[in-house]
Write a structure and sequence with these properties.
Layout (H helix, E strand, L loop, with lengths): L13 E16 L2 E16 L2 E18 L2 E17 L14
Antiparallel strand pairs: 1-2, 2-3, 3-4
Length: 100
């Protein structure tokens, strides 16, 4: 079985993960539907003793079917629009006792 995210596997290097989904467009045609929704994901992973911050954004293109009164995703395509990675700096709340 494939997982949706590397953050969900055992012994994941992902320490922090944030996923926001918004701007959903839905087209219904009888018992079938197609959707497109935007997402932004930010995560921090510790790999090889180093932390890296990752950002990516894109769209989920889903196809749905209604069977026996229940809607379910029958197909999902993830399209990445952009991404970046950075070596994280000291977090602002860790500087000079901020946030305490």
């Amino acid at each position: 079985m494939r997982t949706a995210s590397p953050a969900l596997v055992t012994d994941s290097p992902v320490e922090v993960c944030f996923h926001l989904i918004g701007n959903i467009e839905i087209e219904v045609d009888g018992d079938a539907a197609r959707t497109e929704c935007k997402f932004v994901c930010a995560l921090t992973a510790k790999e090889g003793g180093r932390r890296t911050d990752y950002w990516n954004a894109g769209r989920y293109l889903d196809e749905f079917a209604c069977r026996d009164g229940r809607w379910a995703i029958t197909r999902r395509v993830c399209v990445y629009d952009w991404s970046r990675s950075d070596v994280p700096s000291t977090r602002w709340w860790e500087r000079d006792g901020a946030g305490r």
